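[SOLVED] Predicted holo structure with zinc ion

Edit: marking solved, answer below. Original request kept for reference. I posted the sequence and ligand SMILES and asked for the 3D complex as structure tokens.
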Amino acid sequence: MENYEEIISPIQHECTSKDYTWKCVEYAWQIRRLRLQIQSGDPYEDGYSAEIDVKFCPFCGYKTI
Ligand SMILES: [Zn+2]
């Protein structure tokens, strides 16, 4: 896992599913846009990744303003 304990975090919200496949993020520079990201394997090799905009976090229920 990466460490996001920076003084100014670019991540406004972040949740990860238990199997680490799904991630729900809101970036500080794109506030109010919550997205669900899926990543499987290495996207540069045989894996893939995709992104879906969502209204709330399916893991903790967090909502954008
Ligand atoms: Zn969440």
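OP edit: The longest strand covers residues 34-40. Thanks to everyone who chimed in.
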